[in-house]
Structures are given as structure tokens and as C-alpha cells.
Amino acid sequence: MKIKCNYCGAMIDETVKNCPQCGAPLSGANRTSEEQPKTIEELQAWYVAHHLPPEEITRFFIGKDIREPKAFGIYKNETGDFVVYKNKSTGERAIRYQGADERYAVNELYQRLRAEIVDQKGRRPAAPTQAATSTPKKKKTKGCGCIMAILFVVFIALVAIFDKTAPNGYYNYQGTQYYHQGSSWYYYDANTDDWYQSDDIDIDRDNASDYRIETHSGKDFEESSWYDAGNTSDDHDWDDDDDWGSSSSSDWDSGSTDWDSDW
User: Fold this and answer.
1) Which of 21, 36, 120, 164 gets the highest tally of CB atoms within 10 A of its CB?
2) Which residues touch 64 (CB under 8 Å, ≥6 apart)?
3) What's phi and psi for 181, nearest 5 deg?
């Protein structure tokens, strides 16, 4: 089975770990771990356990061959192949993977789903504070305080909506591992097993899910001299952010997803 390289677009054999054209690693080979779901049934259970909205809201259909526009999904076809797909806004279907490797197929959709959760939480407006929702006092000073609190919440919400900065974390871009921290990028040099400051790369919040990786090789960025333990306000730790929790289904806006790309 042939799959498309994320970096150069070449069609390559699914069994190789690196693209023979550009050298980039295959995302599935780099991002699997023993703790994650390995079968469609396990992915379905993971979805439920993390309190995600109904599939009609998230547009992620696990174990279903949905043909309508704007849908991600995975299913097993009549020949026994596992198919991972994305239906674009036009209704055109892009096949991410089709083959006999269920674990690989599940990982592709699992990683895309986790990245979508991060993006959705990043776009979700901040919840109003108690000061903003409480009944204003009759005293003028209290009224001013309430107005200021409301303005502050609106400001935070606008920042969350319009901030295009990529989340802190590890990325794989054109075959090189990067770490984003605050407003800076750092790259990993395998020859020295260390991290170095990098020029900005073409990744922002909108396309971060295409390059975000959960696992990486070599020295942890947290062990480098660049790591700032206090600069973690924008981190999207997937162990925490996977769980949609008590958030309303209406907070999930699948209309903001890029439905025109292949993945």
C-alpha cells in the first residue's frame, strides 16, 4: 500500500520509516506509544472516556464509512483493509491510509483527533469569571469593577480567538525535530544531541496539527539550557487537554476546521 509523504508529497510504501525522496520520517512510525488505542474498538472507548461531544458535532466517525462532506473517519472495508479518510467541504474524499495495519490506521486518526482537541480548546472563548457574571452592586465603585472584569474577560476571549501562535511542544518539520516555546523555535541536532535556537518556521496554530508530534528521539528539550519552566502558559499537554470534560458540545466548532486540505 502506498501513502503520501507529508513533506514532499511523494507516494511511498507504507512499510518504510523514512521517505526515500526527502528523508522525512513517517508520522505513524514516529508517534505511536504503548498507551494509546491500537484498534477501532479501543479508539471508540477512548473517545467516550474523554467526554468528547457527539460525533455529529466533532465530525470524527470511528468505525463508520460516512460519505457526507466535512467528516474524518476510520472503518474496515469489505476486503479487510482499514481505511482512514477525510471528506472535504466539497464532498471529495481524501484517503489518508488504506491497508491491513489496524494499529497504524488507528494512530493516524487518533493523532488527528488529539490535535483537533487542542485546536478547539485554543479557539474556545474563556469562561466568564464570577466577577463578570455576578449581579453588580449599587455602589458606583463596584459597578466600575464589574465593567472592568467584563472587559478583561472579553479581552482574554479575543486573544484566544485571534492568537495564531503555535502551541508549545514538539514538532517535526521537513525531517527536523523542533520545539516551540513562547515566541521562539529550537531545533534538535542529532550529531551533538542538543538543542539550538532556530529561525521561525512556517507553523502557526492553524496548521500546527499537521506537524505536532507526541514522541521524539534524542535529548528532551526540557533538559536543554533553553528550557524555561515558567514559560508554559501556552502548553497544550495532551494528557490534560484530551479530556473535553464538562465543556458544552456547543463549544466545539467544526466549522473552523480546515476542510479543504487533504488532512
Assistant:
1) 120
2) 55, 73, 75
3) -135, 115
